[in-house]
Each structure stands twice: as C-alpha cells, then as structure tokens.
Amino acid sequence: MRIKDIQEALREESLDGWLFFDHHQRDELAYRVLQFKVPRIPTRRWYYLIPAQGEPQRLVHAIESGMLDALPGTKHSYSSWQSQVDGLKKILAGCHRIAMQYSPNCVIPYVSMVDGGTLELVRDTGVEVATSANLIQLFEARWTAEQLEMHLEAGRRVDRVRAEAFQKIASALNAGESIDEWQVNRFIRDGFTKAGLVTDHGPIVAVNANMSNPHYEPSPEGSHAIRKNDAVLIDMWAKLDRPGAVYYDITWTGHCGAAPPATIQNVFDVVTGARDRAIERVKTAVSRNEQLHGFDVDDACRGHIKEKGFGEYFVHRTGHSIGEDVHGTGANMDNLETHDERRVIARTCFSIEPGVYLPEFGIRSEVNMYVGEREAIVTGEIQKRLVAIV
What we know:
The protein is of the alpha+beta class. It is built from nine helices and 17 strands.
C-alpha cells in the first residue's frame, strides 16, 4: 500500500481525505489505486477512507465483514440503513473536504464512478465532495520505467505492421488483385498476433468518405474495396502481451498513387502542421518547467486548424491519455468535448491526433507523446508525408 504517498498528495491538494466506495465492483479505479482485490464480488457497499493525517478507516457490511481485510486501518461495520449512515459520519468525523471518484458536471467521465445517490448520502454527513481527477492521474496514469520500455517496443512492432499493411495494399493493386478494408483489417490483426501484440478492438481501415468517420471500423459485410487513386486511413493500437503493458496508438494516411490530388495534400499539410504545433507546445512547456494543462495543448493544435479555415471539420479532442487501456485516466488534450484543466504531469503518455473530416475524405495524423521529468518525446515514427501506395 502507498498510504503515505496518498496522504502527502491529499495535503498538497488541500483535501482532508479520499473516500473510496464500491458495490459489485463498479469502480475499477478504486481497486487499481488501492492495489488490492476483493475476495469475492461485493454484494453490499463498502467504504474506505484514507485521511490526510492518521489511520485509514474501513466501513463494511456485517455479512461481508472481511471484504477490506487486505487493507490497513480501523474496521467499522454496519447492517441497517441507519447504522450505515452513522458509520459514514463516524469515519468522516473531522473531515470538511474529501475526494471521491466524481467529476462536476461529468466533465471527466473516466473518473465519474460514484453514483449521484451515494454523493447525496456522503454530502448529507456535512462534508464537501471534490473530484479525485488529479489524484487518479497521479496514482493511476503515471508509468513505470518498465512500462515505458514496453510502450517503445510495442511501437516498434506496430510501426512494422503498419508499413507492411500499406505495402499489402500496394502489392494487391499492382498485381491487379482485389483488396478491401476488411482484408487489411484482418492482415493487421494477424500481424499483431505474430508480433506478440494484443488489442481490445480495431483497427480502423477506412477509404475515402469512410475516413471522415473517426470511429469507423470495417466489417466482413459491406467493406469498401480499395482501388487506385483512393485515399486510405489506418488507425491502429496495440500493446505487448505482457502484464502491465501499455498501449501504442497511431494513425497514418496514404494515397493509392504516386501523386495525391492537391486537395488531399493541402488537408494533410494542415493536419500535420497542427500536430507539430501541439508537439512543440508540449516540448517547450516541459523543457521550461512550465505548468501545462490538457486544454492548453488542444488550443495550440485547434488554433492552427482554425487559422487554415478548417475549424468546423475538427470535431473531436486533440488527444487522449494512454495507459493499460488505450484511453487512459490521465489528462486528455481537450478544450472541445470538455475543458480539461488537469495538469500534464511527468511519467504520463497521451496521443496528439488532429483530424479534418470533409465529405469526400478525412485526414488524421496521430502520434504518442511521453512526458518525462525534463523533456517530452514523440515515442514512435512521425508521418512527414502521405504514404504513396504504389
């Protein structure tokens, strides 16, 4: 357990405690932060308070009294509704402001795990409930040195599969053979398996107008054929098949021909220019030890696309946190879908992936950035020009 580290962070956030709550294993974050597993699925509610000072407090139901025995602290039990309320008041005595897995207005849905009724119950004891978003990032989103190495190795393998996928399309077209989005999707998944990589779903392989659906995925039925002079987008994410591995997530685009049309080339230049502006914003802030927030990065990226006249066609955030899940629990690069005020902190990773989505085609360029103690890096290859699929 990292009780002392959590207590230090609570004091820095001016919080009196962090209250964890669960029922039926709804809050996966609680178990990951507390680094423990319950002996069985909880069918009754449990509460665990880590105060900024002093000993943790456990509140469990009488018929599941051993549910939190793996955690340190004083145990309290309840059975009736009233004794639960009394137990909450007892463990929260002396607290004025506590953190829970809650986000005001659900601004950060990744953290909003506690239901509204439980928030009402806790607030009725007289305490103020604050978001645990910064704490979650601190104790859940930061990588170990080993995770960074696994990410870099996954990147090398994914980049190889990506290059092979574009070559697969070129070889089929040059041989006069038919090939479609689904076949390339399966080729990539087979490549992942051979490379010792795993993924939760995907990848995205999209042609022409399908490129403008940011979450498009082909299926065996209705998959579009890839032909000469088509534009192609491939978005792929995977991690090593090892415990604790973290994702690598990229998007590249290409054109089935030696010279892309000017319209496609122009949008590619706009998107990659926005990507590079965001990368520079992060690198500069980290090198100068300046405070940087998720919305700052989004503003830098989105500002470039607006300047070029394509602002209305950039319809999603600039980037997302990356961890053991492809969408992690750290700061997102976002001032569109949410105003993410979380700080970009050391030992975290996120995507930079601006896109412009027109009716005929869409372009997205995605890289991953890792923030170290003194510098920020792009962790894999950076696409400088459209892939010539010839």
